[in-house]
Specification:
55% helix; 60 residues; mainly alpha; 1 helix
Length: 60
């Protein structure tokens, strides 16, 4: 039993799904790139130990 040829509506729906998939993939890549830039740039992050920080030198 052979399948019927794809209806025009299904071709349009497939095109929309591909477009949406590309848009979502671009968003994921953007968020990943921003995360990498934020983590690798700037001051290194310090772990929170729960202990108070030592006062800066020269403070009373």
């Amino acid at each position: 039993m052979a399948f019927k040829p794809a209806h025009e509506m299904h071709r349009r729906r497939f095109g929309r799904n591909v477009g949406l998939g590309v848009a979502l993939a671009a968003f994921v890549v953007l968020v990943f790139a921003l995360t990498v830039v934020k983590v690798t740039g700037g001051d290194p992050m310090r772990a929170v130990s729960g202990a108070p920080e030592a006062p800066a030198e020269g403070t009373p």
